[in-house]
């Protein structure tokens, strides 16, 4: 899917800052796409964008109203529907990462059909996909892999895109999750793809390109997380990675939401990732380790990262605290 910008970010009416994490991610990484925010009351968390109503946003040239919130159950609030219909009637597309499909809401689907705008249900892929082939593709590819889910794979991939572009690389972020799709404006929500087609979907996200071009593929899940390993495996084979970056979070006692499952050793993930990646990539190599060190103070974080770097012979960094330039340097050296 390709989502037209600029965006009006719907922040809704929740005072919980975490509820607008999707919108916050879009604004952080693609501020140039965000013309304004729509808050339904003054207590709603703000991104410090201009507050706009639907009519003002239309007059300013907004092309897509983005429902940039996450709520329990992923269900569309009834009192939002008239606002969405108003946006549609003024020619805006609508993008949503909620579990409830926009196309399942009769008033929204009817208005969109009459006005001829697009409804982007990010969690629901309707494209025709092929199974993976494993055929060698030209160009370079990097995939982030994790010790668990929610350890910073999207942030790391986006940070690498920016740092590589700043150094003159022709590098592109390939989104595989709902927030990433809204940030990039295109992509496929891999967790909504039927299992047989995950590797094929990844191949379509990262097609053949010029030998000097880098496609940076956002990882999902973990090979050693029993809940999400299937998605990770499909991504690994479809990505055909030349380079791998391991993502990890310090301080987790167990897999997220799985208290009976201990966190794996970093080395176990790395060995397994390289071994399995060789099915479609002739020489996959780790180029760095990205770690969320937020539970550590600065001295502890630096000591931990230095120890990792010495142990594995790779640059280890916290992308939020220290950036990813050391990993980009390693990519320059290895490729």
UniProtKB/TrEMBL annotation:
Signal peptide: none annotated. It comes from the Bacteria. InterPro entries: DgcN-like, DgcN-like_C, DgcN-like_N, P-loop_NTPase. Residues 131-328 form the D-glutamate N-acetyltransferase-like C-terminal domain. Residues 49-124 form the D-glutamate N-acetyltransferase-like N-terminal domain. SUPFAM superfamilies: P-loop containing nucleoside triphosphate hydrolases. PANTHER family: DUF1611 DOMAIN-CONTAINING PROTEIN, GLL3100 PROTEIN. NCBIfam families: DgcN. This is DUF1611 domain-containing protein.
């Amino acid at each position: 899917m390709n989502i037209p910008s600029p965006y009006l970010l719907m922040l809704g009416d929740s005072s919980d800052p975490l509820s607008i994490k999707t919108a916050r991610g879009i604004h952080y990484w693609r501020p140039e796409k965000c013309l304004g925010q729509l808050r339904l009351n003054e207590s709603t968390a703000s991104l410090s964008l201009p507050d706009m109503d639907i009519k003002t946003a239309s007059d300013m040239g907004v092309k897509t109203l983005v429902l940039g919130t996450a709520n329990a159950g992923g269900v569309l609030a009834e009192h939002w529907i008239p606002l969405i219909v108003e946006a549609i009637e003024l020619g805006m597309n609508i993008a949503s990462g909620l579990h409830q499909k926009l196309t399942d809401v009769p008033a929204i689907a009817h208005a969109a059909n009459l006005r001829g705008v697009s409804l982007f249900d990010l969690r629901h892929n309707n494209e025709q996909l092929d199974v993976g082939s494993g055929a060698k593709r030209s160009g370079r590819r990097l995939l982030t892999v994790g010790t668990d889910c929610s350890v910073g794979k999207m942030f790391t991939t986006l940070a690498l895109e920016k740092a590589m572009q700043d150094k003159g690389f022709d590098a592109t972020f390939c989104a595989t999750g709902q927030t990433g799709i809204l940030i990039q404006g295109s992509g496929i929500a891999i967790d909504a793809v039927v299992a047989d087609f995950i590797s094929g979907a990844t191949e379509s996200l990262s097609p053949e390109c010029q030998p000097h071009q880098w496609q940076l593929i956002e990882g999902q899940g973990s090979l050693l997380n029993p809940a999400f390993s299937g998605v990770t495996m499909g991504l690994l084979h479809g990505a055909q990675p030349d380079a791998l970056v391991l993502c990890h979070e310090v301080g987790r006692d167990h897999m997220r939401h799985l208290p009976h499952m201990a966190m794996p050793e970093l080395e176990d993930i790395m060995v397994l990732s390289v071994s399995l990646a060789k099915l479609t990539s002739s020489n996959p190599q780790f180029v760095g380790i990205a770690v969320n060190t937020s539970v550590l103070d600065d001295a502890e974080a630096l000591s931990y990262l230095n120890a990792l770097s010495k142990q594995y012979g790779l640059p280890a960094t916290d992308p939020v605290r220290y950036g990813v330039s050391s990993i980009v340097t390693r990519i320059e050296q290895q490729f």
